Amino acid sequence: MEIKTGKSVIDLEVDALKILKKNITSSFKKAINILFQVKGKIIVSGIGKSGHIGSKIASTFSSIGSPSFFIHPSEANHGDLGMITKNDCTILISNSGETSELTNIILRCQKLKIPIVSITSESKSTLAKKSDVTLLIPNNVEACPLELAPTSSTTCTLVLGDAIAVTLLKKRGFTSQDFLELHPGGKLGQMLLWVKDLMKTKGSMPIIKDNQKVSSAILEMTSKGQGCVGVISKSSGKLIGIITD
């Protein structure tokens, strides 16, 4: 039963993604153009599971060349609305399109004439009507047998966010070198480094001449903290050997 249920959930979510794919139409292109042209930041907001997905979407945007951050609707209602400025645009996420906590963010956007891109499953919802462009996710397709827990809907929202992010990446001409500048740490950053970024040069290189004593080699190795010392010819200045600790 467990294996059958697990596979069934995956099948249902795959089916929902196939429906989502059909929804990638002119509205998607319009949303991309809005997000591409923004001079400020892309602000993402949503509450509950939509908020968790929204936070990930904002993080993805920022990591591949589209500066973005997530605002929690409750925090927005207690001062964080000031983080939204006239050069920004917003992506508001609500499956029902009737999330009351987003109301003040919508009003703030209208006051500053900031574009609103909405992600919802209800084309006639309040959120959709207040948006400049609406991106629809499939309706009533939750993998939860009770049709209550957000499952397929959040998966579709997450995938839609990735689709937007990657499309913007290509449109901006974002390169692996740009990626390195934003990801200097971790395995990804290490994979993209050049040898010149790591190698020692000039005074930082532990070097001795071949006519010096071993005690000088140990001192040089220790003072430079590299665990080795290069040995160069006194006459030619070329590297002729290496001593390690």
Structure notes:
By secondary structure, the chain is α/β, with parallel strands linked by helices. Helix content is 48%, strand content 15%. It contains 11 helices and 8 strands. It has a 5-stranded parallel β-sheet. A 3-stranded mixed β-sheet has the order 6-7-8. β1 (42-45), α3 and β2 form a beta-alpha-beta unit. α1 (2-22) packs across α7 (152-172). The N and C termini lie far apart (60 Å). The mean pLDDT is 89.
The overall pLDDT, averaged over residues, is 89
- How would you classify the quaternary structure? single chain
Straight-line distance between termini? 60 Å
Radius of gyration: 27 Å
Strand content: 5-15%
The structural class is alpha/beta
Report on the biggest sheet. Answer: 5 strands, parallel
Q: Overall 3D geometry?
A: elongated
Counted beta strands: 8
Low-confidence stretches: none
Count of runs of 4 or more consecutive helical residues: 11
Write the H/E string, N to C: HHEHEHEHEHEHHHHEHEE
Q: In order across it, which strands form the biggest sheet?
A: 2-1-3-4-5
Output the keywords.
single chain; 245 residues; alpha/beta; five-stranded parallel sheet; three-stranded mixed sheet; 15% strand; elongated
